[in-house]
Amino acid sequence: MRIDVVSIFPEYLAALDLSLIGKARRENLLDLSVHDLRDFTHDRHRTVDDTPYGGGAGMVMKPGPWGSALSRIAAESPVTGAMVDKPILIVPAPAGAVFDQQMAYDLATAPHLVFACGRYEGIDERVLEHAEEDFDVRPVSIGDYVLNGGEVAVLAMVEAIGRLIPGVIGNPESLVEESHSDGLLEYPVYTKPGSWEGREVPEVLLSGNHNKIARFRRNKQLERTAARRPDLIVELDPATLNRHDRDT
Ligand code: ADE
Question: What is the pLDDT of residues 204-246, one digit of tens each?
């Protein structure tokens, strides 16, 4: 997969050199480049923002530098004009569709993702309209709160998407049983020692009875999800539940 990130703070994205995502880059599973938006300005001050038409607080990102940056990235995209799909342009913004695990799965199969990190009050709307010519444009929010810019949202999304690329996680089994993979939160986990600060590991986990362990874990998933995220229980497809689930 190819990923391009455009930002006025490329240093923010340095964390993408670390851990599993950094390793995926070094192993060429992920071809990720970060671009400084100011490299696409043409004035002495490398200006990227200006006052909003219509008045109001704050500054708006100018269209010119964004247009140049996105044209260059589109021209160099591995997704060519001959292909039906365009590269996907993700614009992190609190006014976007909310990012979730399903969106991460969908995006993990795309050949080319581009992230446009806005700052200030946002990017001139015409940039997104114009970009529709070359990209599948998707404003995306990582939650109902406001960040100072898109960079932190990109760190979260690239990590969530990147770990789903085949080969990035050593043991793909761990992707099967994690929170949200089946619409439920993950069960609690324990390791040695068996007794710690007077607290014991649940006995069933020491029993060696795989059916009982699976039932215990499934019950914990259901209990946890009902207590912490009742909204997820409402969304569950009843067809995915079995008789034992209903008794929980
Ligand atoms: N930029 C500012 N706030 C954001 C959010 N909640 N999600 C994505 N990008 C943002």
Answer: 999 999 999 999 999 999 999 999 999 999 998 888 887 778 7
Task: Give the separation between CA 23 and CA 90, rounded to whole angstroms.
Answer: 23
Phi/psi at 226 (nearest 5 deg)? Answer: -60, -40
Q: For the residues 77-87, what does the mean pLDDT come to?
A: 83
Q: What is the mean pLDDT of residues 193-205?
A: 98
ipTM above 0.90, yes or no: yes
- Secondary structure of 98-146 in HEC code, one letter for each residue: ECCHHHHHHHCCCCEEEEECCECCCECHHHHHHHCCCCEEEEEECCCCC
Which residue range(s) make up the domain with 81? Answer: 2-162
Of all residues in the chain, the percent with pLDDT exceeding 70 is 98
| Ligand 1 atom, smallest distance to 140 CA | 8
CA gap 151, 12 in Å, rounded: 7
- Whole-number Å distance, alpha carbon 149 to ligand 1 midpoint, is 6
Concatenated DSSP letters of 166-212: TTSSS-THHHHSSTTTTSSPPPP---S-SEETTEEPPGGGGS--HHH
| In-domain check, residue 29 | yes
**Does residue 145 sit in the same domain as residue 97?**
yes
What is the position in ligand 1's atom list of the atom closest to the CA of 144? 6
DSSP state for residue 76 in the 8-state scheme: T
What are the pocket residues of ligand 1 if the criterion is a CB atom closer than 6 Å to any ligand atom? 92-94, 141-143, 145-147, 150, 153
β-bridge partners, 136? 88
Same domain, 30 and 140: yes
